[in-house]
Design goal:
Blueprint: H1 2-11, H2 28-38, H3 54-61
Length: 71
């Protein structure tokens, strides 16, 4: 249901949309949150970061990088 809604929004004439792809290594926090969401239904709101993201949040804060492994 979410994908069709996104497509409808993108198709509107009064929007300028640019879709970009980021490798998961470029945003470990979002990757971790996405993985947490796999096991849940609906939308989850957080008042503070879930404990499962604290390590990657800290790494992001200090500027750590993760190289992309080419296969």
């Amino acid at each position: 249901m979410l994908i069709p809604q996104c497509k409808q929004l993108i198709a509107k004439d009064d929007w300028e949309v640019q879709v970009s792809y980021w490798y998961r290594e470029a945003n470990q926090v979002v990757d971790r949150l996405a993985n947490l969401g796999i096991d849940r239904e609906g939308v989850t709101y957080y008042d503070s970061p879930p404990k499962e993201t604290l390590d990657v949040l800290h790494a992001d804060f200090v500027g750590a990088t993760w190289p992309r492994n080419a296969k």
